[in-house]
Design the sequence.
């Protein structure tokens, strides 16, 4: 590994910006976030960046490194070609605030529109439930999500087509899947998933699954089963007939 | 009046980790309006880093467990300077707080009969930690977040409070800034809950994030509240030490709970060499018994690797000092060895410790199912904090409450692993409930514009000095080096006196810090404002540590290496003196009721 490398960092805000080159000393085991911090401490005190845990657990330091959506704290420099400048830019699907920080507030509003967890009555008098580990595990995969929003960043429905008002994006479909597959939950989200949350807009290109730092099989294990659920519940002819009689 | 936006809530909660979220949920349930201030985005607080689990005597795995055993374990771990009433409430209420999480959507690992699974942890007599693999903190904060967003709470993200406002002796509001535009915000409130976490950023090697700058400690101190037990800082025995850029990142105690062992460079399990007298009866007789304990044998006693964190940290330091350390100045933590005991050990390890596997693989190119990890102590937690009433969590300043890491009492001289997540649930709830009650009984106070003007003026000073001033990061790094070197794991009077002098110099440097640029999302400015908090908590730790002339729990004095009975009956209280200087006073610990004394005797 060379002793120094160049980091080409996007500086700017909602009005516009440009890449700026900064040198950084590099050493064994360093990650991109270390280099950004070094530049911030020495050359650019006001370089805006979000971070918290620096261990891949909080999902704050999402950015695009050499064009790839990544957590900066988990991107080792020895995985990058340091003979050329390393570009670091904010997530492009969201409006820029400053430098590497984007406005991700839409995600918090979108989540609120999903029907909350609604458990069946407890199984035991002490207010607890009984559940098999295997059922817990199916949901636990989705609950590993650290809300880094890299899947939202890369999803073309949001990134290219900006359908923020019609599609909640992979993150929130994973959230909905965790609720729908929770064996204790009694709410039905099929109607919302179809109409308000736009599960049909996903055309299974699996870009989200590829960038997930938690390796959640977003498309295969969350979105496709939700699509099936919507079809089962809203298009099943027997159910449809049953509904006609009921009304 | 300076330029700012004004918000009004009955209860304002400062901090949105587990304690803050739980407090906000409870206050909202009490029918009052609630504002919740987060320093970062919602759901990113340091709680996400908690790995091992939530300690609660539910007895799902071992039916011998109950609140009395948990209480006795907590007091023993805290070396009996805990607030015994808090330890009692905590042990009694933790099981209900865990079951409540399940009601709100948490998905814990299960026992064979489908109940919440519990695991072994240091200092806990029975398997007691409800968990989700090794990412329990994430599960906890996400559950509270996803429940909380439907409770009508107003969330103020990326907002930092820099001053509490008082009227006639009670708190009536708070003043701060939001990061995005750098604008000031004034919050009027009838009650305020501090839930700001710890002070880890005062040290160089720490498992804590940038947010952990002692904000709540400082806000309370400035408002006239007592701080207590500030000498007790927990150095977690197992932080990553290599490569340098990951130094300090936590390696969960669950590695040892699942059978991981500590070895020195000679391959010796050195923890067998020093077992404290008060833990001897609970410690395994040999390696075989220790292994059986980690695999759930109820007749077995725990291996010495699962002794309390303060003790394990000191044993590691001893090995390193004696020249028996690992290549990068730590010791070896080995979970790979269990392949000699379990057929599918790699799969087993990946399932039980998924994020540890991931963390070492990605950050250190190391496969923990094949190779031992290198680990060493890292600053992890502060037992000290705002002195509060056990029942209500209110400080000595009317209307000011504190819960979680920024409050003192439950943990005494050393915290047991797993007791933090239960602490934030139990006392977060209590703080929220009583803050709501308090808010219902009081009307809004009057905001004193002079207090607001002064806070604003001080906050903008770094911009006046601009780029000509000293850089904020350089002062912060110097402070971290200083505390690491002079007020760290092993302390002496001479070094701490030097630290006091050095802190004076750093205070002078901090007053000359300058920030260039504008107020919009400017991390240099934020770092400059956090400096004052770091300086105050560092001084509080140092002054309290000088006064405690003995070794107890997380506080180890090389010049007073033994525990002294006379110090076992007192806490040290830090408060702001009339002249603005810091004072340290002694407060006797109230006599424990006979019923609790009997429990401690029975559990010995």
Sequence:
């Amino acid at each position: 590994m060379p002793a120094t490398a160049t980091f080409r960092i996007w500086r700017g805000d909602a009005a516009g910006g440009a890449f700026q080159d900064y040198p950084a000393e590099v050493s064994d085991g360093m990650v991109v976030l270390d280099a950004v911090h070094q530049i911030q401490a020495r050359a650019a005190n006001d370089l805006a960046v979000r971070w918290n845990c620096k261990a891949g657990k909080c999902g704050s330091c999402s950015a695009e490194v050499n064009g790839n959506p990544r957590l900066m704290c988990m991107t080792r420099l020895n995985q990058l070609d340091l003979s050329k400048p390393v570009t670091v830019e904010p997530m492009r699907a969201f409006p820029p605030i400053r430098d590497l920080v984007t406005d991700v507030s839409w995600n918090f509003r979108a989540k609120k529109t999903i029907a909350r967890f609604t458990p069946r009555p407890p199984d035991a008098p002490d207010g607890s439930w009984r559940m098999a580990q295997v059922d817990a595990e199916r949901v636990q995969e989705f609950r590993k999500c650290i809300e880094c929003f890299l899947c939202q960043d890369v999803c073309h429905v949001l990134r290219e087509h900006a359908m923020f008002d019609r599609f909640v994006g992979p993150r929130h479909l994973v959230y909905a899947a965790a609720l729908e597959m929770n064996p204790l939950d009694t709410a039905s989200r099929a109607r919302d998933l179809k109409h308000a949350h736009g599960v049909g807009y996903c055309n299974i290109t699996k870009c989200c699954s590829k960038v997930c730092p938690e390796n959640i099989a977003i498309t295969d294990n969350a979105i496709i089963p939700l699509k099936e659920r919507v079809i089962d519940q809203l298009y099943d002819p027997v159910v449809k007939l049953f509904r006609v009689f009921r009304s | 009046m300076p330029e700012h936006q004004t918000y009004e809530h009955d209860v304002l909660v400062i901090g949105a980790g587990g304690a803050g979220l739980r407090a906000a949920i409870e206050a909202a349930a009490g029918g009052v309006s609630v504002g919740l201030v987060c320093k970062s985005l919602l759901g990113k607080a340091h709680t996400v880093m908690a790995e091992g689990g939530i300690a609660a005597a539910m007895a799902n795995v071992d039916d011998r467990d109950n609140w009395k055993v948990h209480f006795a374990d907590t007091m023993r771990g805290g070396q009996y300077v805990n607030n015994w009433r808090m330890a009692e409430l905590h042990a009694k209420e933790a099981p209900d707080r865990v079951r409540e999480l399940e009601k709100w959507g948490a998905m814990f690992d299960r026992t064979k009969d489908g109940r919440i699974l519990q695991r072994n942890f240091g200092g806990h007599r029975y398997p007691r930690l409800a968990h989700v693999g090794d990412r329990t903190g994430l599960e906890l904060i996400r559950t509270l977040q996803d429940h909380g967003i439907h409770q009508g709470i107003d969330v103020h993200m990326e907002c930092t409070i820099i001053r509490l406002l008082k009227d006639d002796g009670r708190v009536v509001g708070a003043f701060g800034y939001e990061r995005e535009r750098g604008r000031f915000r004034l919050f009027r409130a009838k009650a305020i809950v501090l839930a700001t976490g710890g002070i880890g950023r005062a040290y160089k090697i720490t498992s804590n994030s940038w947010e952990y700058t002692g904000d709540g400690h400082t806000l309370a101190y400035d408002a006239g509240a007592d701080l207590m037990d500030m000498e007790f800082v927990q150095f977690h025995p197992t932080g990553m030490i290599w490569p340098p850029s990951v130094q300090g990142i936590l390696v969960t105690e669950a590695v040892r709970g699942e059978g991981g062992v500590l070895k020195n460079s000679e391959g010796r399990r050195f923890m067998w060499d020093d077992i404290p007298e008060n833990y001897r009866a609970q410690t395994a007789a040999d390696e075989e018994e220790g292994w059986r304990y980690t695999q759930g044998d109820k007749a077995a006693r725990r291996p010495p690797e699962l002794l309390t964190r303060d003790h394990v940290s000191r044993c590691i330091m001893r090995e390193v000092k004696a020249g028996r350390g690992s290549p990068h100045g730590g010791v070896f933590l080995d979970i790979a060895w269990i392949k000699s005991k379990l057929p599918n050990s790699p799969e087993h390890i990946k399932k039980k410790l998924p994020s540890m596997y991931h963390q070492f693989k990605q950050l250190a190119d190391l496969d923990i199912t094949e190779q031992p990890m290198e680990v060493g102590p890292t600053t992890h937690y502060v037992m000290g904090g705002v002195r509060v009433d056990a029942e209500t969590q209110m400080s000595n300043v009317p209307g000011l409450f504190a819960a979680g890491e920024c409050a003192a009492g439950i943990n005494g001289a050393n915290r047991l692993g797993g007791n933090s997540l239960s602490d934030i649930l139990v006392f977060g709830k209590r703080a929220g409930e009583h803050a709501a009650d308090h808010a219902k009984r009081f009307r809004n106070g009057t905001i004193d514009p002079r207090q607001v003007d002064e806070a604003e003026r001080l906050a903008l000073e770094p911009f006046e000095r601009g780029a000509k001033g000293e850089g904020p990061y350089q002062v912060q790094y110097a402070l971290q080096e200083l505390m690491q070197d002079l007020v760290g794991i092993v302390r002496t009077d001479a070094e701490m006196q030097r630290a006091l002098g050095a802190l004076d110099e750093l205070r002078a440097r901090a007053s000359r810090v300058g920030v260039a640029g504008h107020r919009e999302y400017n991390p240099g400015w934020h770092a400059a404002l956090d400096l004052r908090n770091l300086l105050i908590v560092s001084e509080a730790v140092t002054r309290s540590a000088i006064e405690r002339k003995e070794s107890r729990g997380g506080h180890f004095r090389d010049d007073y290496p033994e525990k002294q009975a006379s110090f076992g009956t007192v806490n040290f209280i830090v408060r702001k003196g009339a002249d603005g200087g810091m004072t340290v006073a002694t407060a006797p610990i109230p006599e424990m009721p006979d019923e609790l004394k009997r429990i401690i005797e029975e559990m010995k």
Remarks:
- The two ends of chain B are 61 Å apart (CA to CA).
- The longest helix of chain B spans residues 523-547.
